[in-house]
Amino acid sequence: LVVCPVAVNIDWNNTKMMMLVNLLFATILLSRQVVEAFLSINPMLDLATHDPPQHHHSTSPLSMALGDFTVELQKPLGMILQERDNDSLGGVQVKELVEGGAAATTTSIVPGDVLLQVNDSDVSTLDFDSVMDLLISLDDSSPARLTLGDGLGQLDMPKNVLKLLKTTEDAFFVDGVVRQAVREIRKRNNKLGDLLNVEVVIGAGVQEEEEGKRGQVRFFAIFSTGGASSYSCNVSATGLRLEDGKIEIVYLSAAKDEGLGQTYDFI
Asked: Does the pTM exceed 0.85?
């Protein structure tokens, strides 16, 4: 902080003027001390060019991303894995569950889930062989702690959709309804093929009812049949929040935007 002197005619015998000058310099010194103290507490803070903090993906129980969850499975795990359907992210995802196997009995894991962490090891970017070597090396006598995610990332909710929601809690609830609807579709062997991703949420509404909070959503999802081709579907879903906080999908349908425009009712 620099104070530039200015040439002025001051009557130094004027007591009031002296008091004013002293007060001015005291204020400047105090402001400088406050700024220096603030910067000492926040040494990385640049007041002029400060960027918002970057949030890195973590699979610790306290900072898991939306759509992530943890289960404990005894070997054999009872699921077939495959390389993720992407060009550069790496990692593996669940292709199929073995009927009656450990993964199927959890009712949490569905095809399409991405394996993020095995015990304390991050496997989200490992190649297929490295992940398999790690799983094979696990102790058969104790369950493995697996962290998985739905692979959807952050959902795209345009401003016009967010304006329909009253609170941040409603926005998170809508996010949960979309993700649960995706899980319901993925765990069914349906004619639409594999649900790869959610393009955008195009409609949402939340109502408080006697039986709990009810959310209605519409979103475009990308499906693939045999990995050869992909297409978009308009998905509609209604979710109900239960007493334990979980979301139950009570209505679910999808309509093709291309071709014959067929509609498939799941629930």
From this structure: no
